[in-house]
Amino acid sequence: MSIKLEPDSFYHIYNRANGNEKLFASKENYRFFLKRYNDLITPIADSFVYCLLPNHFHFLVRIKSEEELRTLRGFRTLENLSQALSKNFSNLFSSYTQAYNNQQGRRGSLFMKNFKRKPILNETYLRKLIHYIHYNPVNHNYCKEIEEWEFCSYKTIITSKPTILKREEVISYFDDLKNFIYCHKHPPELTGIE
User: Fold this and answer.
1) What is the pTM of this model?
2) In terms of Cα–Cα distance, which of 176, 170, 173 is closest to 193?
């Protein structure tokens, strides 16, 4: 049974490609996925951090309040918000799969069935998850330093360029930007983030 998505709650959203396939074959694929994410998920959730890797992805989101959700077309009269929220994520994966399959000349599902969603129940775990998501490209040997990976929110968090991410809130979980950067210079198991 999958976890229900609830208003005002944090979730780690993640999934991977079927088998040994790739989710992203080019930079344009990554960019298109993020655009579709922005179109379909930004209306229903605040985004904190993310990382897209060739065969899997991670997002940390907080579902918007019920009051905010009820203002959206398609959410006004629904009794089951959780189902509607999951449908937006499913639409993201489905629309991306259709575009990717068309581009790559492939058929069938691209993602593992049923995207994963893990509720974040305390700030300690939230802080560890932010670090874990950002450190993922290093852990999987796609780069040596977090800053090198283009499709990760780390660089956006440490700059002042416009973003949909909740930058200030992310940094606040590490007290300040200096400590945020310091913690991210080391593997999650060595930082002692509590």
Assistant:
1) 0.92
2) 173
